[in-house]
Every structure is written in structure tokens, then in C-alpha cells.
Design brief:
The complex is a heterodimer of chains A (about 500) and B (about 130).
Chain A: H1 5-16, H2 19-24, H3 31-56, E1 59-62, E2 73-76, H4 78-101, H5 106-124, H6 128-146, H7 152-183, H8 188-198, H9 203-220, H10 228-235, H11 238-263, H12 265-271, H13 273-296, H14 300-321, H15 324-355, H16 366-369, H17 371-385, H18 391-405, H19 409-435, H20 474-489, H21 494-508
Antiparallel strand pairs in A: 1-2
Helix pairs in contact in A: 1-3, 1-5, 3-4, 3-5, 4-5, 4-11, 4-15, 5-6, 5-11, 6-7, 6-11, 7-9, 7-10, 9-11, 10-11, 10-14, 11-14, 11-15, 13-14, 13-19, 14-15, 14-18, 14-19, 15-17, 15-18, 15-20, 15-21, 17-19, 17-20, 18-19
Chain B: H1 6-12, H2 14-32, H3 36-58, H4 80-111, H5 116-125
Helix pairs in contact in B: 2-3, 3-4
Classes of the chains: A mainly alpha (about 500), B mainly alpha (about 130).
């Protein structure tokens, strides 16, 4: 009966999410403890599920005991529970961080729990239409959270995200409709065989994949469709940036992996050579352009946002390469990228809270004043480049190796180029942090970004950066440092991942 | 598959033609119109097109409403599943519209304009 844990994982955060609002009527600060309790429960359940799945194979729960394939089912296999664990971890970490950094309101904590529940739903569902509903729940809450600091800029960023995110989800829905017309089922496990019966070259099936792919490309922010993402990440409150950059696009990319290999299967890619080539080309452009745009940014959060465009390009390229090694790399990179971006955005948020530093120039000499945070940015940045030992290296290495194995030298070359570009933009930050004298007059001219009104205590740049240490607690720094340690330590763990994911990869590439 | 001419498509598959038209007009409106509220209406229209597609797929020639009497007789029935899907999707669409309008109201109180181009200008000068 351990499969009951799956509906619990999805339902619990969604049900708890009303509590902060209810208790908020009486107690002003009810939100945080409730959200923390919910997130810790999710983390505990996630740990339990992943040990259970690792020991006994995948769990399947038919909701309401409706017979399959008519009812909706939740499926927890090794891949989905790994992402569930990431969601549990990041939601606890970010909540510790947002305790002092804000946003504080009860509405924020309700949204936070709802978002956690939505993400868990995206990851655990085994039904295509149910996936759409959870994608939209995730999307809706994300739009609200991006705008939760009540500034005009964040509202504009959120509105942009509303338009593009909805179009993405609707395109996905069209794809699901085509699949339903072609096969008459929506259950993922059932569809696998049904699509094979219809035939992989059937135009309806190909069109369905096309719509689903473009829908997810919008959601994960691949290059020409990425325009919502830098604004949303840059103008959202720091805690929210950390959370959504780590999880929201990750969940969408997970869903793309799941649909590509569990629903359409690897045969589909083998038969439709043109489709995989096209995805690879688009993803490669995304990798290079994302890295180049990241290199051109002066604002730190924007730079990290464009770096995400490149990293997700890599994951999508690995999907199109479609062999065991590359997909293994994509899954590790998905997990690692989530951790790394959470750490980077949290660290950037600390520096913004204490010194009001939001651009690269303002980072000059901060390493002497915030040694732990600066070191975390440096180490996670180096992991993002892909220098071993780190989880960033593992992901890139296996994606690259898979591309070489498949004879896709173009993809391998693009990953190499992007590594060079990542090296360039990460070292720009490290150089500023460690080797530039503090109080550098550059960058405090008219283009200076007065973004830090929302924590009134922070200073406004100027020649003297005055520290406001009350904005940061030891706990926040400990969170960032522990993510850094995890990012490095996981660099030694590829066998662990391989043992865990072997059954999934076997199923994908039997 | 029989050879279908353009006329056939328009006379027997007009619901699908409507789906494509509605969705494209909505999408075009969302991209080309500078007024934020009209952009949102365009988005709604795009979604309505998708809903129309789902409802159309449920249609069965001569089918009745899928309410099965106790003795299990009757039929053929139209497929109920796409209807359920569209109901859910409509609810999702309504909440999206609500979130979008709330954001537009906040933008309007902050900047005093509903036009995307002037909004960008104001924000650049900020």
C-alpha cells in the first residue's frame, strides 16, 4: 500500500495551502510555520518514496480506483522521485531563506505551497491531460509569485509570462488533443502501445509531437521563445527567483523527457530523423545564443537567467540525441542545474540584501566582506562551467559523451563552445569579486539600477557600499554554503545516480 | 484516405477550419495589438479555438448525449471525455484571465497606461 504516498505528496501541499490564509485571519505570522511544516512533510515523504522506489521498483496509484486506462493514475518511478526529492529539498531551503528575506505575507506562503503541490503533480502524474492541469496550476501560481513584491516592473514581467506561458500550455493542449484523436487514450503507459499501433510516421502523431515540443519549449525557455524568462527571474523577489529558476522550468523539462521517451519512445526519434535533427539544431542555437546573451549582461540575475536558457538547451539537445548516455546526462543536469541555480540566486540575493549589489560592477571586492557567499558564487559558478568534481561537470560530460557516441559532433562542439562562454561570464564575476578593489567608481552612473527600494534599509550603491547586515541571517548563508557543498560532493556520485536511474533508462532504451 | 478537395474541407470540416481561424486570429491579436486588455482577449480567443477543437472531436454522427439509462440501452453516444476536458480547461482559462486582469490593473495604477509600447518606454526611462 506504499503507493498511497503518491496522492499524499500531491494533495497535502495543495490542501495545506489554504491554511495560511485561514489562520492569517487571526495570526499575522501564521504563514511561515505552516509552509515550513508542509515543505518538511513533503521532503520527508520524498525521501521515503525514493527509498521505496529504489528498493521495490516503480509505484503506480490509480486515483479513485478507476480501472486503467480510463482513470487517472499517478506514477512514481526512479526519475520522477528524483525530481520530487529536488522539489522537497529546494522548497525547504528557499523557505529558510525567505524567512528573513521575504516576501512575508500569508498569501505568499499559500502560493508557495500551491506551487509545490502543482510541481509535484506535474512530476508524478501519468495522464497527459492531468499534466496540462498541473502545468497550469504551476503557471498560475508562478505568475502571481513573480509579481508578489508589488512593483510595476515585476507586474510587467509577470504579465509577459502569463501570455507566453499560457500559449505554451495551450499548444501542449492542442498536441494532447491530436494524440487523443489519433489513439483515443490519454494514459501515458497506454499511449505508448497505442502510438506504435497508429504508426510513428502518421502525420497526426508527428503534428502532436510538434505541438507538445513547442509548448514545452516555451515553458522551459528555449532560445527564440525565452523572452519571458530573464524579466521574470530578474524582477521577481530574490526568494521567488531562486525557487522558480530551480524548479519551474525543470518540471517542464522533466515532463518533456517523460513524454518523449515514455509516450513517444525512442523509436519515434529513430523513425523521424528530421524531427530529431531539427530539435538538435534549435537546441544548439539556444545553447550558443543563451551563453552569448549571458556574457553580455551586466545585471547578475539576468546573467543567471540567460545561463538557464543555455543549460536547458543542453538538456533538450540530449533528448534529441536520444541515447542512454545523453539522457542520463540530461537527468543529472536537470537535477544539478536546479541545485546550482537555487544556490546562485540565493547567493545573489544575499549580496543584494546586504550591499544592494545587483550588477557585476557593484560586486567589486565583495569577497573580502562576504567571504562565504562570495566563495559559494565562485564555486557554484565553476560547477556551472563544468569543471570537475561537481554535478555540473557530470551532467555536461554525459551529455557530451552521449552526443559523441551517437556521432552528433555538432552537439558536442556546441557544448564545448558554451563551456568556453560560461567560463568567460563566470570569471567576470569571480574577477570582480576577488581581484577588483572595492568601491570601484564604474557602474554607478546614470544607468545604475535603483531596484532595491523594496528593502528600505539597503543602501543605494554610490561610491561607498554600506553593509546592512541585519537583512541576512546566518541561516541564509548556511543554506547557500550547504548547496555549494552538495554541488561539489554530488560530483563524486555518478554511480549512485546510475544505480538509481538504471531501471528507467532500461525502460526508455530497451 | 479519400482525396479531399478544399471545398470538401470547408463544407464537411468547417468546425476544424473555425478552430484554426479562431486560434490564429487570437494569436495574431495577442501579438499585434498594443492594448494589454485586447492582448488578453486575443489570448482568450486562442484558447477558445482550442476548446472548439476538443468539442468537435467528441462529435459522433447521430450520437446522443452520453447519459446511459439503467438498462444500458441506447447509443451511439458522443464521447464525454473531451467535454470534461474542455470544462476543466475553461476553468483554467477563467483563472488565467483573472490573474492577467489583476496584473493589468496594477500596471495601470502604477504607470497610467494600457499600451504595451508606451509601457516599455516609461519603464526604460525609469
Amino acid at each position: 500500500m506504499s503507493d498511497v504516498v503518491l496522492p499524499l505528496l500531491v494533495a497535502l501541499p495543495i490542501m495545506i495551502s489554504v491554511l495560511p490564509l485561514i489562520f492569517g485571519l487571526k495570526y499575522e505570522n501564521a504563514g511561515w510555520p505552516i509552509a515550513m511544516g508542509g515543505s518538511l512533510t513533503v521532503l520527508a515523504l520524498a525521501v521515503y518514496t525514493i527509498t521505496e522506489v529504489a528498493a521495490n521498483g516503480r509505484l503506480i496509484h490509480a486515483l479513485g480506483n478507476y480501472p486503467q486506462p480510463y482513470g487517472i493514475e499517478l506514477v512514481g518511478d526512479e526519475l520522477s522521485t528524483l525530481i520530487v526529492l529536488l522539489i522537497g529539498l529546494v522548497s525547504v531551503l528557499v523557505l529558510v531563506y525567505s524567512r528573513t528575506r521575504g516576501p512575508y505575507g500569508n498569501a505568499f506562503h499559500s502560493g508557495y505551497l500551491l506551487l509545490t503541490g502543482g510541481l509535484l503533480g506535474v512530476v508524478l502524474t501519468g495522464d497527459l491531460f492531468n499534466l496540462f492541469v498541473f502545468l497550469e496550476i504551476t503557471g498560475l501560481v508562478t505568475y502571481a509569485l513573480v509579481a508578489s513584491d508589488r512593483s510595476g516592473k515585476s507586474a510587467y514581467a509577470a504579465l509577459k509570462y502569463v501570455f507566453l506561458g499560457t500559449i505554451g500550455a495551450s499548444l501542449y493542449l492542442i498536441g494532447v488533443g491530436y494524440l487523443y484523436v489519433a489513439t483515443g487514450t490519454l494514459n501515458m503507459r497506454d499511449l505508448q502501445g497505442a502510438i506504435e499501433t497508429v504508426g510513428y510516421t502518421d502525420p497526426l502523431i508527428q503534428a502532436a509531437f510538434g505541438f507538445i515540443l513547442v509548448g514545452f519549449a516555451l515553458k522551459v525557455a528555449l532560445f527564440p521563445l525565452h523572452t519571458w524568462q530573464p524579466d521574470a527571474y530578474a524582477y521577481a523577489p530574490d526568494s521567488v527567483s531562486a525557487y522558480i529558476s530551480a524548479l519551474v522550468s525543470t518540471a517542464a523539462a522533466y515532463a518533456l523527457i517523460r513524454i518523449s521517451f515514455d509516450v513517444f519512445t525512442v523509436e519515434f526519434f529513430l523513425v523521424n530523423d528530421l524531427i530529431s535533427t531539427a530539435i538538435m539544431a534549435a537546441a544548439s542555437v539556444s545553447i550558443v545564443v543563451g551563453s552569448l546573451l549571458a556574457l553580455m549582461q551586466t545585471e547578475i540575475k539576468r546573467m543567471f537567467a540567460y545561463s538557464s536558457v543555455a543549460q536547458f538547451g543542453m538538456i533538450v539537445a540530449a533528448i534529441a540525441v536520444a541515447n542512454e548516455t545523453a539522457v542520463f546526462g540530461a537527468i543529472i543536469h536537470l537535477f544539478g542545474h536546479g541545485l546550482m541555480k537555487a544556490g546562485l540566486f540565493m547567493a545573489a540575493g544575499i549580496l543584494a540584501a546586504v550591499y544592494g549589489a545587483r550588477t557585476i560592477d557593484e560586486y567589486a571586492g565583495l569577497a573580502n566582506r562576504s567571504p562565504f557567499t562570495a566563495a559559494s558564487i565562485a564555486v557554484i559558478g565553476i560547477a556551472l562551467i563544468g569543471i570537475p568534481p561537481s554535478i555540473g561537470f557530470l551532467g555536461k560530460w554525459f551529455i557530451g559523451l552521449g552526443a559523441v557516441e551517437a556521432g552528433e559532433w555538432g552537439v558536442a562542439f556546441v557544448i564545448f563552445v558554451s563551456t568556453m562562454l560560461t567560463l568567460a561570464y563566470v570569471f567576470r564575476i569571480i574577477e570582480k569579486l576577488y581581484f577588483d578593489p572595492p568601491g570601484d567608481p564604474h557602474g554607478h552612473g546614470s544607468d545604475h539600477d535603483h531596484e532595491h527600494e523594496h528593502d528600505g534599509a539597503a543602501t543605494d550603491g554610490g561610491h561607498e557600499l554600506v553593509a546592512d547586515t541585519s537583512a541576512v541571517t546566518v541561516g541564509m548563508v548556511v543554506m547557500v554554503v550547504s548547496i555549494t557543498i552538495a554541488v561539489v560532493a554530488l560530483g563524486f556520485s555518478w554511480e549512485l545516480f546510475f544505480d538509481l536511474l538504471a531501471p528507467v533508462l532500461e525502460r526508455f532504451f530497451q | 484516405m479519400t482525396e479531399a478537395t478544399l471545398v470538401d474541407v470547408f463544407t464537411t470540416r468547417h468546425a476544424y477550419v473555425m478552430f484554426v481561424l479562431l486560434a490564429s486570429i487570437g494569436l495574431y491579436m495577442m501579438i499585434a495589438n498594443q492594448n494589454l486588455v485586447k492582448k488578453l482577449i486575443g489570448l482568450n480567443m486562442f484558447q477558445t479555438g482550442v476548446f472548439l477543437f476538443f468539442v468537435t472531436t467528441a462529435f459522433v454522427q447521430g450520437g446522443s448525449a452520453p447519459v446511459i439509462p439503467p438498462d444500458g440501452s441506447g447509443g451511439p453516444f458522443v464521447s464525454p471525455l473531451p467535454h470534461v476536458i474542455v470544462l476543466t480547461a475553461i476553468v483554467v482559462g477563467v483563472s488565467l484571465t483573472a490573474v492577467g486582469l489583476a496584473l493589468i490593473i496594477r500596471l495601470y495604477t502604477e504607470y497610467g497606461t494600457l499600451r504595451a509600447d508606451s509601457l516599455r518606454e516609461v519603464m526604460q526611462n525609469e
